[in-house]
Automatic annotation (TrEMBL):
<dbReference type="InterPro" id="IPR053136">
    <property type="entry name" value="UTP_pyrophosphatase-like"/>
</dbReference>
<feature type="domain" description="YgjP-like metallopeptidase">
    <location>
        <begin position="99"/>
        <end position="167"/>
    </location>
</feature>
<dbReference type="InterPro" id="IPR002725">
    <property type="entry name" value="YgjP-like_metallopeptidase"/>
</dbReference>
<dbReference type="Pfam" id="PF01863">
    <property type="entry name" value="YgjP-like"/>
</dbReference>
<protein>
    <submittedName>
        <fullName>M48 family peptidase</fullName>
    </submittedName>
</protein>
Amino acid sequence: MPTAEVEYIREDGIRVRVKRSTKRTRTVNAAWREGVAVVSIPARLSRKEEQHWVDTMLVKLMSKRKPLPAGDDELLRRTQMLSARYLDGRARPLSVRWVSNQHRRWGSATASEGTIRLSDRLREMPEWVVDFVLVHELAHLLADDGHGPQFKALEARYPRRVEAQAFLNGVTWASDREGEVEF
């Protein structure tokens, strides 16, 4: 068996997937994949060595992770700051929250209710990518033309728009989804 995988949730709430590989002989690596810490280890390691490497690699992964707004109140404040910076403060959402039921979209907005919802898959992404999705959703609160010219002009005010879109498309491609994830 070349690779065996075990996934579990630690006491601290972090989801971990351990991949044991017979092809991997000496190295250990780890990366975030859709909110899961994936730790790849040689198949020959004992359970005690596995636990040591999972703990070690999680410390490294967590140290590189930039904290994003944890709660909905913080997320609302961040969104208000982005509206002020890029949209002259005209977009005023009443509610901005993280959701776990958006698997095909990074975010969504309901202009009639003034609400924005962000997929919790964004929590592991760079702050500038999350900011782009927030600006994108804020633009929906102001523009009444879907993804038309008015909307695109508002969205284009975010300086890292092209880079963020490319990043999200790369994440989509890497996760083997077909097509582009909708906003």
